[in-house]
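Before going further, learn to read the protein records used in this course. The integers have meaning only within a learned vocabulary of local backbone shapes. To see the layout at work, look at the sequence and tokens printed below.
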Amino acid sequence: MGPPVASRGHTATPTVGKAMLNKYARAFFTRVLTPFAAFLIRRGVSPDTVTLIGTAGVVAGALVFYPRGEFFWGTVVITLFVFSDLVDGNMARQLGRSSRWGAFLDSTLDRVADGAVFGGFALWYAGSGDDNVLCAVSIFCLASGQVVSYTKARGESIGLPVAVNGLVERAERLVISLVAAGLAGLHAFGVPGIQYLLPIALWAVAVGSLVTLIQRVVTVRRESAEAEAAEQHAQGSEAAQ
């Protein structure tokens, strides 16, 4: 799990805003994390191991703290392990290992981490949070996030570019949710009214995910129709020759 950076062996096509964030943020964190990544390499640690440990930390932070309503500390733990996504990519570059397996592992474990975060919210609202509506919204965020990712992967697997930047993609879902959760957790330290940020964020992510899902489905339908029309035209041209 992590910020909007390219996975190992995977080429991303970010928007202008994300490209700017990648350019400056990644340059800074590359300088900071390169010595640590080099240290891990010298100790014989593989990028895949870092990916697995990072995901385990995110899952633990989400499923241990969030169901108990400890949103501040849960977010702190998750944020610390989120940086593993930058470390493993840095290690892969230093080792010259840009592999399909690394990209696959990153992408798969990202889904696991996402599920843990929103699952933690759902468990809180199903239990001590005592709000069935927000529990349902959290589950919708979890499910829609998985489906949004699937639509792009499935579209690309059948040869379509799925050339659309959705309203709320994975980076936005996580940033909105984690920032809101961390701030909402300050309510336990006496900050009044701030606990309402998390419900607002969950509703925003739910609506944004639905819009993004519709955008991707519409895009795949259009691209599919265009591809089929192009194939029929090519076949007609061959038959005429």
About this structure: Helices lie at 16-42, 47-65, 71-82, 84-95, 100-126, 132-157, 170-184, 197-240.
